[in-house]
Amino acid sequence: CKSWSDLIGSSSFVSTQLHRNVTKHAHVYLLCLHHPHFERQNDNDDPYVVEELQWSLFSNETFEQFSELSHPLGSTDHYGIYGSSNGLVCISDEILNFDSPIHIWNPSVRKFRTPPMGTNNLKFAYVALQFGFHPGVNDYKAVRMIRTNKDTFAVEVYSLRTDSWKMIETIPPWLKCHWQHHTGTFFNGVAYHIIEKGPIFSIMSFDSSSEEFQEFIAPDAICNSLGLCMDVYKEHICLLFRYYGCEDECMQKYDLWVLREKRWKQLCPFVYPWNRCRAMGINIDNELLL
């Protein structure tokens, strides 16, 4: 007979509860960056007016605002969210730099952890940050990628379990060239990024446990980054691409491709009225968010 504290502290109990929350969509909220009164108050033509935005949690079912998310350190500066998983949120500066502080935050209990500074101090670099849970190693990971204008590329991985960073030493040759970085996402412990090398778009993946890189060339129809985003659809990485040639002039269309067994498969597109906002992504119920 185990004590209650031993039971809830066991890894099997934690895994079971995580699985239950995911499969039953328990306590699922949408993280949204929005205007305080949900409508733009600023003049778009005035470059000196600072746009006021805030992060909030919204119900996944009713879309009602549940809670505002103020910075855990009380800062009034804008901050960015770079991933969330099982109630933990990764936040950092809105514009990332090599020395931007990172906080792993649980808003529900108002506690956070600040990882130590990474080992890489490349200045004047583009920095990408992603965070999520890796079920294969039962650990939360943050992946930081740094690229300079001289095409120097570095990757660091943070482990919440060990509270430490690890520099990735081996970078594949196909990343040792000039390329542009676009949006990314984190799924099942793997960081995915849309990259552009000349006229070719592809998906770069990096497994935060095995430290393996892979590249998946995007479908030929994807020819620019405008209207292109990446998300997860039915447990598969997917690409959404806004297509301007819809048969009905009053409608617009997002083509949908999913990555299955390392190959792209095109599915039925999303079609919706032209006057709606652009697509924001796909929610946990595999519905398009506008």
Key structural traits:
single chain, 290 residues, mainly beta, Neuraminidase, 3 domains, four-stranded antiparallel beta sheet
Structure, explained:
The chain has 290 residues and is mainly beta. It is 7% helix and 47% strand. The strands form 6 sheets. The chain has a 4-stranded antiparallel beta sheet, with no helix packed on it. It has a 4-stranded antiparallel beta sheet with strand order 8-9-10-11, with no helix packed on it. A 4-stranded antiparallel beta sheet has the order 12-13-14-15, with no helix packed on it. The longest helix is centred in the first third of the chain and has 14 residues, at 11-24. The model is unreliable at 1-11 and 20-26 (pLDDT under 50). This is SFB. InterPro entries: F-box-assoc_dom_typ3 (IPR013187), F-box-assoc_interact_dom (IPR017451), Kelch-typ_b-propeller (IPR015915), SCF_F-box_component (IPR050796). It comes from Prunus spinosa (Blackthorn). Residues 75-265 form the F-box associated beta-propeller type domain.
Annotation field: number of helices: 2
Please estimate the helix content: under 10%
Low-pLDDT parts are 1-11, 20-26
**What is the overall silhouette?**
globular
> What number of structural domains do the residues give?
3
Any guess at the CATH architecture of the largest domain?
A: 6 Propeller
